[in-house]
Specification:
alpha/beta; Rossmann fold; 45% helix
Length: 240
């Protein structure tokens, strides 16, 4: 990858540039369970009686799966799934209360995210070198990455944020990445995308014509890998 070609650096958000406990698979269920326990407590503070039910987080995700199964795969908004979640529990949620609980839900998730010091320093370095940095994320709420940038204090390093809700396509779809290149009015081969998932980052971005770098912090890069792969984000500099 020549620095004469690469103009835009696209970072995946969760578990690549930013970290949260659920990035570790064994933490995912406890984190989700706690998330929904807090949500229910907040709803009860508003005066709602919520029926006792195990695995509320599973109910939430199952609603999303059911909607996907009866429609073309589309990005689902957290606010809409929350609405269906409460009605499925037998709770007729008021409009203003849904808004309150949606933001409570988003803030609870956003506050779990941190950015390692070395990643913050990398953003500062790349920004100082003049790279145009964008953030991409698979999330059912464009509000979430904006909140994360606000809480972690790194918003100024990013020129744009492209969430799946904003673009309207899933990250597994190469069109998600094509839309970004079209929006920025730049040839895809002048964008390098960095992410930790082959399915959501590397393969669809490559199909869209991007250069890609896999951040393989889970299984580590293998000598047989033919594509660019790093275990330390600072090593992306070797490919720019």
């Amino acid at each position: 990858m020549s620095d004469l070609l690469i103009k835009i650096i696209s970072f995946d958000m969760g578990c690549t540039l930013f970290w949260e406990p659920a990035c570790e698979k064994h933490n995912a269920e406890p984190v989700m369970r706690q998330q929904f326990n807090e949500l229910i407590k907040e709803a009860e503070k508003l005066g709602y009686e919520i029926p006792t039910r195990d695995n509320l987080y599973e109910l939430y995700f199952n609603i999303g799966k059911r909607i996907w199964n009866i429609s073309l795969e589309r990005e689902l908004w957290h606010k809409y799934i929350l609405l269906r979640f409460f009605f499925e529990l037998g709770v007729s949620i008021k409009l203003d209360d849904l808004e309150h609980l949606y933001w409570f839900f988003i803030d609870t998730i956003a506050k779990r995210f941190t950015i390692p010091r070395r990643h913050r320093q990398l953003l500062e370095y790349l920004s100082g070198m003049g790279y145009y940095i964008v953030l991409t994320t698979s999330t059912g709420a464009h509000d979430l990455p904006l909140r994360i940038l606000q809480y972690t204090g790194v918003k100024d390093y990013f020129k744009q944020v492209f969430s799946t809700q904003l673009v309207g396509l899933l990250k597994t779809d190469p069109r998600f990445y094509m839309e970004i290149a079209d929006t920025l009015n730049i040839n895809p081969n002048r964008i390098v995308h960095i992410g930790d998932s082959l399915t959501h980052d590397i393969l669809p971005a490559k199909k869209a014509g991007y250069r890609t770098i896999l951040f393989d912090w889970r299984t580590k890069c293998r000598p047989s890998d033919t594509d660019a792969c790093v275990t330390d984000l600072w090593d992306i500099l070797d490919y720019l």
